[in-house]
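Sequence, structure tokens reproduced for reference:
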Amino acid sequence: LNKNVCAYDRIRVNWTLATPPSDPHLALYETTPVIGNEAPRPRAKILLTLPPLPPVDADLPRELHDLSGGVAVEPLLTAMRWNADSWTMTLEFEKATNAPPIKDVRAFDRLISTNIELRALTASWEANGQHLAIHINAPNDADAVQEAFDSRSFWAACAPWPPPSRHPPVLSGEAVMRVPVASSYEVALVNDGRVESNAGSILVEACDGTFVSDIDRVDDTLTESIDADDVWLELPGVYASSGQRHISLPPEELPLQAQQDWGLEFWIYIEDAPTGAHRGLFFKGDVDRLGGQRTPSAWLAPDSNKVALRVSTDKGLDIGADTDTPLPVKKWTHLQFGFHNLSDASDVKYLLTLDVDGARDATLEIFDQVTWNDGPLQLFRDPDRRGVRGFIADIKVRARAPSREHAQKNYQAADRDKPDLHRPDVEATDALVPMEDPWAVALASTENCASFNERLANYEAASPINKDASRIAAELLLFGAERLATGPKFCEDADAPPPLTGEALRKGVSYLERAVAMGDAAASRMLASLTLAGFVSTETKDLKAIAPPHTMGPVVASRLGDAVHTNNTERAVQLLYQAAMHGDARACLALSNRYRFGRGTSQSQEAAAWYAKCAAAIAKEEFHTPGEQTFVELNRITDETVADGSVDDNQRGDEDAQLQAQMQRAEEGDIDACVASGDLLYWGARGFQRDHVRARRFFKVAADADHAHARCLYASMLLRGEGGDTDHAEAVRQYEVAASAGSAKALNGLGYEYFYGNHLPKNSTKAYGYFAEAARLDADGDSNFNAAHCLAHGIGVEKNVKEAARLYERAATRHGHFDAAFEIALVKHGG
């Protein structure tokens, strides 16, 4: 550590860490922290860059495996016993294991996962490898195990295999940081929330030419040197926003936690005219913890696109004013916000400044004491209101507030890489068939499997006023069929579409461009895909034939030619931005991958994470559409199964002899067939259409025959009103019977009823108790998720975010639980 530096100098710190890394970072403090204690909140935080984890061989044979099943079979843990007198815990397996040697805690953790962190133990195998006896050697560990057994909260399971990759025992490296404010600081190494070591103090001085006094930063009469290296944090890339989500920057990532001078800079493209409500640009605070504190924040005004600048002071939470000039719509505008603290011992003064396209637009002077807060900086919206719909690009946080000269220089530098969004020029397309309700007529023609020409004419007629109609007209011209939300509609008796011609291509693309101009997300994504495909010729011989709908073959068009303006990655990315802004999950996912690997965009992990988060949030909404939950089937396709025609065996639904035989057995009352057939019909699997009425009937037959799992499936449909009326009383009865047989799914269902109070009296404590007991059995993802949700929010139990994260991760990784995967991703994304 170099001890004496100038402000903004690069400070290099060599570090060594001999404990497992968990959020390791350097922290700057004003006073010396105590080694070994919990780390206090720092003035600044610098994350350590760790070396990549070594690769793990996924084909390793299991160290602990079922002896009868071989090295690939995980043994089943069936019972746990605790002898308090001898401090011995015994784990019993269903069958004998290969009994690998366990010489220490590290070897034990490699094979067995528990919710108690053991520090010293002696392990031995008994009963020919079917029992594992663990003698606890640390008194505190024994007390923890005793408490867990008494509360019935102890759990154990075979650890995931292959074992997770781990860092070597000792890590070292170099960290680089810059400090903008002159002062004396203590530098400490922090890991897992505790101070590991103290590197000593550094003195940051205001050297000549590197630091300008506070008053000079806004004195327009003085010439300042422009330091291009004052960017504290940068988020490159274009961020499409529907106004519903935000980027959150923790206070530790802001210059001295945003309590001194700093600046915020970005490009913005506003899609909509004023909406009558405030729309958030950014908000600094934490509503749940700090109430309405908002130093600093900015919105677009309700009835104009003027910017509302706000702070909190000792006189009020919402102090500020609106700017004079509204921001333009559908045009890139460069904004720079400056936060100037000009206070001294005798005078209190703060300035908020806004520069638009390099010119000073507004200066807000505040002479009351500003109230700072340690909440995150949220970009795109505030916690209570929707944000701006449009795009924000190339976000920069600067370690100084810009003067007029700085703002102009920053704008000139940013303008060289100004983002671009091209809107298609839409040619007029005449409606072919006038009618009173063209959209309803078009939909009816699809449902009735009318002729291709009739369907096309109806959608063309509706296209001038309906974006969906314009997109579907393009689908008919380009692909020969309507591509509905649940898949193309195949009409076996309908006529085949005409051959694809250059004229049809150009016309189809014009309909897509019309739909894009009208704000259709799917059309934007489709046009982007066609543009990326590199179609360069409209010659008939270069066109691949379109498979007629009734063949159920792949609908593919290739070499679409200049109808899609040739291969243009930049244009395609612009279209993906449009689709993402309108909430298309697939476009968000495509942009995430492009930013992650720098394909057609700059490489930006921040933008990649933003778009992945947007895609997941939209997918979550789609996943919870009643009756339309996503179901994924994984079937291996090989050359042999394609060649012998068996590739779709057991996948043809009503046309599959084996599946129909199973359905017939279910109709005759075979219990196992009822459960299996009900599952196929509930999800619409293996070629069947979803049929919740029939699925519910099959589940009821099996439930009446005392099939515990069927009782839970039937009760779940009763709760949701799927396949019939909602009946909470009957659902509770079914759950209670199944729970008495030890069903984790039933325990979770009873917790659900107590949580919402639909039939049982609402009781959060009882709800959590049922969720926790079901999660202890670890038989499904729902119970783990519900217990984690209660722990994360303190519902019916004391709040415990760490335990919630553990259960979320277990539900996601062991059970593939969708919502748990989303929640643990949010935890990791937010740090």
